Automatic annotation (TrEMBL):
This is FAD-binding oxidoreductase. The keyword Flavoprotein applies. InterPro entries: FAD-bd_oxidored_4_C, FAD-bd_PCMH, FAD-bd_PCMH-like_sf, FAD-bd_PCMH_sub1, FAD-bd_PCMH_sub2, FAD-linked_Oxase-like_C, FAD-oxidored/transferase_4, Oxid_FAD_bind_N. SUPFAM superfamilies: FAD-binding/transporter-associated domain-like (SSF56176), FAD-linked oxidases, C-terminal domain (SSF55103). It comes from Acidiphilium iwatense. Pfam families: FAD-oxidase_C (PF02913), FAD_binding_4 (PF01565). It comes from the Bacteria.
Length: 468
């Protein structure tokens, strides 16, 4: 192992390999703090060739590699599965935006570029990179794409996979595959780019990506609404979608308990309503059309919803600052829940019409089987993805609730399965959801996935302990 580290240090140059305990410890702990498996070393290549050299040397020695971007995974997909036995390969120094094509609406950026920076550089070029997630300030493109992240604009633009034109990937033997094509049409055999999106680093390491951009909106209108019931939430969604589906960029749901945690833990929290509500919606309309008059459209829809009793109150952002304040409420929910104590996170999806049943059945199950547990649901209701998180009862020891997490997830998953849903809508599988994975895919599907894994990574060195 020491000889391998010496060879890696020679290949990667100064600062390319970290081995001191204090330096490598942060790379072994996941965002939720559920795992603390310190790596044997941390590799920090500067470019794709450095990644290829690192993988080639590790493959020859049979040493496992864990690719890591911003380490924002909520399923422990980017940290070692065993302490002291695996190398973390950080993509942080691959941080160049290589090109932006305004005419072709595309961008080529390296894996270590944060999603927020990619958005900003696209905006500077007069374009839009529509992928948006709460952790975009620290999440890096390589991880975002390898987990096929969803986010706030999936309703309009799809998941990360839908934005990929091409990829540059280091394969498990150290081969560097350059598939950075900018073509919108390329029907020539297997679309390998889709193989690596969602594979969670188990088939190779994404080092750069060619991404679709869109024209920047000329107008945005954002509103925060208070609603009396979950059926009213779906009614408001239908009203906005039916009025102008192409303009509906986001439709985010926040339950009353989730909003209450924000009020408790979010600095400078301000809700623009006189009274709290049982449910809330944050909706955003945007368009590239000239003189589209979205403000009038939104006001008309909200007025009709108010008259019908669909909403109890609503506030439309009067400035970009207020728009950001509204989005800050949505984006702070995960942090507020983390500060409240231990929570069991269920990132599930069901058909949109089944969302009320999902919430009702889960609430009843918790009352019967986990007295005092608090359901703080929120999510992307426009695509049926609900973060159905359950927080420990007040006063209960966190360790005691942790011990019931697996049973609780199984109980939630049973409800989701009965509604024809998925146990992981956008977070992936990682280590946390690996036990469920085996039960949610038919034997033929699991076997096909395993054959792909064995064909590309026969020694099993790429992100071991994830998915399988």
């Amino acid at each position: 192992m020491n000889d391998l580290i010496d060879r890696l240090a020679a290949a990667l140059g100064p600062g390319g390999v970290l081995t001191e305990s204090a330096d490598i410890a942060p790379f072994g702990t996941d965002w939720r703090g559920l795992y603390a498996n310190s790596p044997r070393a941390v590799l920090r290549p500067r470019d794709a060739d450095g990644v290829a050299a690192s993988v080639r040397l590790c493959a020859e020695a049979g040493v496992a590699i864990v690719p890591q971007g911003g380490n924002t995974s909520l399923v422990a997909g980017a940290v070692p599965s065993r302490p002291g036995a695996e190398f973390v390969l950080s993509l942080a120094r691959l941080n160049r935006v290589r090109a932006i094509d305004r005419a072709g609406l595309s961008m080529i950026a390296e894996a270590g570029v944060t999603l927020l920076r990619a958005q900003e550089e696209a905006a500077e070029a007069g374009a839009l990179l529509p992928l948006s997630i709460n952790s975009e300030g620290s999440a890096q493109l390589g991880g975002v794409l390898s987990t096929n992240a969803g986010g706030n604009n999936t309703l309009r633009f799809g998941n990360a996979r839908d934005l990929i034109l091409g990829l540059e990937v280091v394969l498990p033997d150290g081969t560097l595959w350059n598939g950075l094509r900018l073509l919108r049409k390329d029907n020539t055999g297997y679309a390998l780019k889709h193989l690596f999106a969602g594979a969670e680093g188990t088939l190779g390491i994404i080092t750069a990506a060619a991404l679709k951009l869109y024209r920047a909106p000329r107008e945005r209108q954002t509103c925060l609404c208070a609603l009396p019931g979950i059926d009213a939430v779906l009614d408001l969604f239908a009203r906005l979608r039916d009025e102008d589906e192409s303009a509906l960029y986001a439709f985010e749901y926040i339950s009353g308990p989730a909003m209450a945690l924000n009020a408790r833990h979010m600095p400078d929290f301000r809700l623009p309503f006189a009274e709290p509500a049982a449910h809330y919606v944050l909706a955003e309309l945007a368009t590239t059309r000239r003189a589209a008059s979205l403000r009038e459209t939104l006001e008309s829809v909200l007025a009709g919803a108010l008259e019908h009793g669909t909403i109890a109150d609503a506030a439309i952002a009067e400035s970009e600052t207020q728009r950001r304040d509204f989005w800050a409420i949505r984006e702070h929910i995960a942090e507020s829940q983390k500060r409240e104590g231990t929570s069991v996170k269920n990132d599930v999806s069901v058909p949109i019409a089944s969302v009320p049943d999902l919430l009702d059945r889960t609430r009843a199950m918790l009352t019967a089987r986990y007295p005092g547990a608090r359901m703080a649901a929120f999510g992307h209701i426009g695509d049926g993805n609900i973060h159905l998180n359950v927080i420990q009862p007040e006063g209960e020891e966190p360790g005691a609730f942790d011990g019931r997490a697996e049973d609780l997830m199984e109980d939630v998953n049973a409800i989701v399965a009965g509604l024809g849903g998925s146990f992981s809508a956008e977070h992936g599988v990682g280590m946390i959801k690996r036990p469920a994975f085996a039960h949610w895919r038919a034997a033929a599907e699991r076997d096909a996935m395993r054959r792909i894994k064995d064909a590309l990574d026969p020694r099993g060195i790429m992100n071991p302990g994830k998915l399988f």
